[in-house]
Amino acid sequence: MSSIPLHYVDLRAFCYATEDDKRVEQALRLFLPEDVELDRVETAGHYGDRILIYSVRVERADEIRHVLTQLASLPALTQVIDELDDRVTDNTELFLTLDKQAAFNGTVSRGDGITFRGKLEAYPATREAAIENARDILTDLDESE
């Protein structure tokens, strides 16, 4: 995977008042190189409970490769490829949700808790071109695993 047809990758996780913020941060860090810093914003829920929002944008090719390498261990990668029509937006973005608890335990799994958004390169910037690029990326990951 020499060329990465992604402009950037955003990862985001919410940490609710009932969760340990260190564990949520550790879950998100599974996907990131060591030197990448997370943004942390504190907000309040509907009833005033504390919610922390951890987010990061990786834009450098090596960092994106690291995220994709982690994503390559996703057991249902073939299923994600089959669902690209539902996962790529008109804005040429690829969305996935990943299991926060599994990530804390060191494995990559589909589920809830961590949002992956990749801005796909597409020339021309059409949804169809973005789907083809996403298919290429994910097929390369699936074959490398």
Automatic annotation (TrEMBL):
Top-level taxon of the source organism: Archaea
Transmembrane stretches, start-end: none
Protein's name according to its UniProt entry: Exosome subunit
